[in-house]
Design goal:
Layout (H helix, E strand, L loop, with lengths): L6 H18 L3 H7 L4 H13 L18 H10 L2 H11 L6 E4 L15 E5 L2 E12 L6 E7 L9 E7 L5 E6 L10 E11 L4 E2 L5 H38 L1 E2 L2 E2 L4 H29 L5 H26 L1 H4 L5 H9 L8 H15 L11
Parallel strand pairs: 1-4
Antiparallel strand pairs: 2-3, 3-7, 4-5, 5-8, 6-7, 9-10
The structure holds flavin-adenine dinucleotide.
């Protein structure tokens, strides 16, 4: 069993790190202060990242993408940490046809089957009514993938997905809902008032919307939540280790105190464990195995690890960790949502338990794994 990186993988990681350090990191303070990036700067970044092959890296080559495997993609996502991707790469794609996933409603979060947004048959098409909230990047998206009830008698099996252009009559982008962190990103309310949709707007088959959303979002979750959480935790620990080496109190570097060492060692152990879980899930996808429970494990483990690592980093930095003069307090705020969005820790934990009760050792005994 070999967990070392190939030459190609090292080159990919090095290229991404260089791009982030040279092009994105210097913009960090501006975005935090102003909450946005000038459109011409965003456009220029987008063109540069595209020229380097960083756009659509996971899409198969025959469709013009980079054709990366899931494991390679996780390596790439891990580098795209923290504010960089959320604040620059995504905003950089403004001007292209970008899209948001719109599932959550004020009354239906974890219980995604209880949505009230509905699409009813009318003529040859559909009429959509309802509202969504917390829709990421919604302020800049050209269209939305919207979940809606199409068969009220069928519960979760009566939900379908629709592609809804933002400029369609009856679509209103509401408030950009203020958040604890993730400055420079938008999370909006959406309102649909008798929006007429033709049949082409229906994604796949009617009634299979929740299944599609779970399958697709599983991969998104692995990359954008799992890998980025591991990457963020790595970066934050790097800063904490640097501080432990340099900061002196009682005539010593604070890294010489065992209580500080314990915080560092716990973070090192947890990050390594989280990364192995992540690579294992990515390899299972590449091998064509059902990775749903593995992805749920990564979601819980990586996001909880990030929370603990960020919390310890604030502690190691002391008052400077709490001060806005350093980015640590921002990393701590930004980390918090990882345990909430894309399915909360509680929801994924319950799913893992259900899977274990159903399939027994297959989830934790490699001899029984299929
Ligand atoms: C920054 C941000 C970005 C987001 N982006 C998007 C997006 O782009 N698209 C989108 O559709 N949604 C998005 N969301 C919504 C997000 O997915 C939901 O917030 C999340 O699924 C939780 O739903 P909720 O907020 O309604 O909480 P609730 O479902 O009300 O949960 C509240 C609490 O109850 C717990 N709970 C609920 N049910 C159970 C249960 N069965 N067992 C144990 N505990 C339970 C939860 O774990 C949580 O602790 C975003 C949210 C945020 C904060």
């Amino acid at each position: 069993m070999d967990f070392s990186l190939s030459e190609d993988q090292r080159t990919l990681v090095a290229m991404l790190r260089r791009f982030i350090e040279e092009k994105l990191a210097p913009l960090e303070e501006t975005v935090e202060r102003e909450g946005r990036l000038a459109p011409e700067v965003a456009r220029d970044l987008f063109e540069q990242s595209k020229a380097l092959g960083f756009y659509a890296m996971n899409i198969p080559e025959e469709f013009g993408g980079g054709g990366l495997s899931t494991v390679d993609m996780m390596l790439a996502e891990e580098q795209c940490v923290g504010p960089q991707v959320e604040r620059w790469l995504k905003p950089a794609t403004r001007g292209e046809r970008t899209c948001s996933i719109a599932i959550t409603e004020p009354e239906a979060g974890s219980d995604a089957a209880s949505i009230r947004t509905a699409a009813t048959r009318a003529g040859g098409g559909w009429v959509l009514d309802g509202k969504k909230h917390f829709i990421s990047d919604g302020l800049f998206s050209d269209f939305f993938v919207v979940s809606a009830v199409t068969d009220p008698s069928a519960g979760g099996r009566g939900i379908s997905l629709f592609l809804v252009d933002r400029d369609r009559k009856g679509v209103t982008i509401g408030r950009d809902q203020p958040m604890m962190g993730l400055r420079g990103t938008s999370h909006v309310e959406l309102f649909f008032d008798r929006v007429e949709l033709d049949d082409q707007c229906l994604l796949g088959e009617p009634g299979r919307g929740l299944g599609y959303a779970l399958d697709t979002l599983g991969r998104v979750r692995l990359g954008q939540v799992g890998a980025r959480a591991v990457g963020k935790a790595t970066k934050i620990l790097d800063l904490a280790v640097g501080q432990a080496r340099e900061r002196r109190q009682f005539g010593k570097a604070i890294g010489e105190f065992q209580l500080i060492q314990k915080m560092i060692a716990d973070s090192v152990i947890e990050i390594n464990a989280a990364r192995l879980l992540l690579w294992n899930a990515a390899a299972a996808i590449d091998a064509g195995r059902d990775a749903r429970a593995l992805i749920a494990m990564v979601k819980v483990n990586a996001s909880e690890t990030l929370g603990r690592v960020a919390d310890r980093a604030v502690q190691i930095f002391g008052g400077m960790g709490f001060s806005r003069d350093l980015p640590i307090e921002r990393y701590y705020r930004d980390a918090r949502v990882y345990r909430i969005f894309d399915g909360t820790t509680e929801i994924h934990t319950a799913g893992i338990a259900r899977a274990a009760l159903k399939s027994g050792g297959a989830l934790y005994d490699p001899v029984e794994a299929v």
